[in-house]
Structures are given as structure tokens and as C-alpha cells.
Known about the structure:
The structure holds two protein chains of two kinds.
Chain A: H1 13-26, E1 31-38, E2 44-50, E3 58-64, H2 72-87, H3 92-100, E4 101-106, H4 111-119, H5 172-183, E5 188-196, E6 200-203, H6 215-229, E7 238-241, H7 242-245, H8 253-260, E8 265-270, H9 285-306
Parallel strand pairs in A: 3-4, 3-5, 5-8, 6-7
Antiparallel strand pairs in A: 1-2, 2-4, 6-8
Chain B: E1 10-15, H1 19-31, E2 35-38, E3 50-55, H2 57-69, E4 74-78, H3 81-87
Antiparallel strand pairs in B: 1-3, 1-4, 2-3
Amino acid sequence: NPGRHSYAKYNNWNKIVAWTEKMVHKHPKMVSRIKIGTTVEDNPLYVLKIAGKDKRRKAIFMDCGIHAREWISPAFCQWFVYQATKTYGKNKIMTKLLDRMNFYVLPVFNVDGYIWSWTQNRMWRKNRSRNQNSKCIGTDLNRNFNVSWNSFPNTNDPCQEIYRGPAPESEKETKAVSDFIRSHLKSIKAYITFHSYSQMLLFPYGYTSELPPNHKNLAKVAKIATDVLSTPYETHYTYGPIASTIYPTSGSSLDWAYNLGIKHTFAFELRDKGRFGFLLPESQIKPTCKETMLAVKFIVKYILKHTS
Amino acid sequence: IAPVRFDGDKVLRVKLQDEKQANIIKDLAKTSQLDFWYPDTTHHVAANMTVDFQISAKESQFVQSALDQNQMHYEILIHDVQEEVEKQFDVKED
Lengths: 308, 94
């Protein structure tokens, strides 16, 4: 028995797996669990599909936990599924969204790294794959996507925190997620990925300072989403393209999804701005999730209205 | 394997005023183990950026005096990382 799951606390991997089973069991008509692959250490990669009554429609893909130490991120994905299932049929907006939109939620992308951050090293970031000709472990999954993958030389050292891996999609986790999104590309209209920390809402590109064709549109959505996010607790977020707002990054999931054809892709850098950093206390999980939920619901409403 | 502990590790925050200060941090990263929290890695360190990095107890004295010698203002965000690791679980089982 993995022990009791709580949305107000950080949950280890065993609790999260049990929670996915519980959600499917409690909401069989709304929630299904899809095993999209396995990790380097053969842990399952589970996506939860959340859908209202009708089945065929637009979809949004959301992932959490690509970097192991960013624990607030998986906490948000669990909260999102909880809120979606709890308020469907009760909250008008959520019911409308779920009746017109499917959600694919990957609660933990980097499962091996997440387990390692619970059992061995709280500050671990990468996955746990072994690197040939190096004693250093792990690849940064958010530098392993096939988009301008080798454009920055400093991502080529296995001992670096931002090691890009031996090849694009070399990691089983990256390949599983990329394959899933490619095979559902017709329906997926937006991609949202959750990280921490620094309270930012980012959009492409990271690998270049050029702006995407619809950058004005993305900036407008990001501005309103961050305004909405700040309403309950006055949490201030900045927003903008990755390269100029945070720093240039190659091989990111956001740029890859955008170049694949998903023209609304966003990355949240959740709380906080450094007072606790990766060690955000559990007492801040709920307020963080509640404010982020407001921003995500705005983005989803926008996607519903403005995509064909 | 016993879990890694961070007793006495600190997290420092430095607001880099110019290229010279950015290079000082990059040089320090070559001689000391700076685990960058923000940005992700040394390579992203640039002028006019705020950097957060974790430093072990045994190296923090050296790093802090290096910053002092270069008149670089810094803030200690976390005085003991291990303590914060344990304090993050501040919600009772409901």
C-alpha cells in the first residue's frame, strides 16, 4: 500500500501510480489511462485521457515533471485531473471545456529521475540513462527533442545538467512522448508543459531569437493568462518568448511541438521566484495549483474558440 | 546507497551587473562545484542576469569571500538546503 495520496502534499511515484488507477476507477466514463511507453529503467509512462461525454474532438496535451527536482509540476497535473473530474457537470466552464475538448495529461514525464529525486538526490534534474564513455548519468529530456537539437555546443557534455543526449529522441521517454503526440497530431491543438521555478509563461522559440509567425497572438494569450493567474494571490508572472525571456535553449519540447504544427504551445515556470526555488513548501501547493488552473482554463477557452 | 544530504549547503543569489561579474561566476564554476538553480547551467550565465546557485558547506566560505573580494553583492536565499528539504513537507497528512 503506497500510502494515502494527497493533493495538498508531494506524492512519490508509487502514490501517483495508485492515484492514476483510482482516477480511472472513480471516473470510468471520463478518465482512461494510456501506457505510452516505458522509461530507461522500465517504469511505465502513463498518460491520462480526460474526456467529457462525446469522444471525437480537439485535444490539449499537457505534461509535468520533465525535470525531476521540479516537484510542484507533477503536483499541478494531479490537481488539474482532480479539478476536471470533480467539477465536470458542476462548474459551467469546466463542463463546457470538457464537452468540447479532450485532455491528455502526462503527470510525470521523467519518472526515473523523479523516483531518484525522492530516494537518492532531491536536487536531481535529468533522467537516469547511462552515457557511453562517461561516468556521468542522465540526459536533460528538455534538450533531447528533435528541434535544433545540436545548435548549442555546450549541451554536448554528459556531465552537464543540460546534456542533450547522444541523438535527438535518443531517450525512451522523449521518443514515447514524441510518438504519442505525432500519432494524435490531428486532434492536438495545444501543448502545455509545466516546469519550475521563476514564475514565467513562455512560448516559442528557445533555439532562436526569431519570433514565431503568430507571436503577437501567443503574447496576447500569455498576457491575459498571467493577468488571470495573478487575481487570487497577486502572484506576478512575466511572459514572452523563451530565448529572450529566460535564455536560449535548444531541443526543447515546446519548440518541437510548435514546429510539428501545434501553433499554441506554452511553458509554465511555476512558483516561486527563488525564496524556496525547487523546495517550494507543500503549504504553497494548493494556492499555486489554484492560480495556475485559472490561467490554464483561460488558455483552453481561447484554444477552443480560435482553433479549427 | 544512502540518499545525498545537503547539510550546510547554501543557495546564493547574485545579481550580475556586467560582463565582468558574469565571467567571475563562470570562473568560479570552473574551480568550485556550483549547482545552478537558475539558469540551468553556467553557459546561460550572462550580464544583467540574476543567478541562483547551490554551494556546499565546505566551499561556501571560499565562494563568498571571492564574491566579497570582487565587490559582488549576493543574497543567501537558503542557509541550509538540507533543512529546507525537510521543511518542505509542511502539510500534515489530512
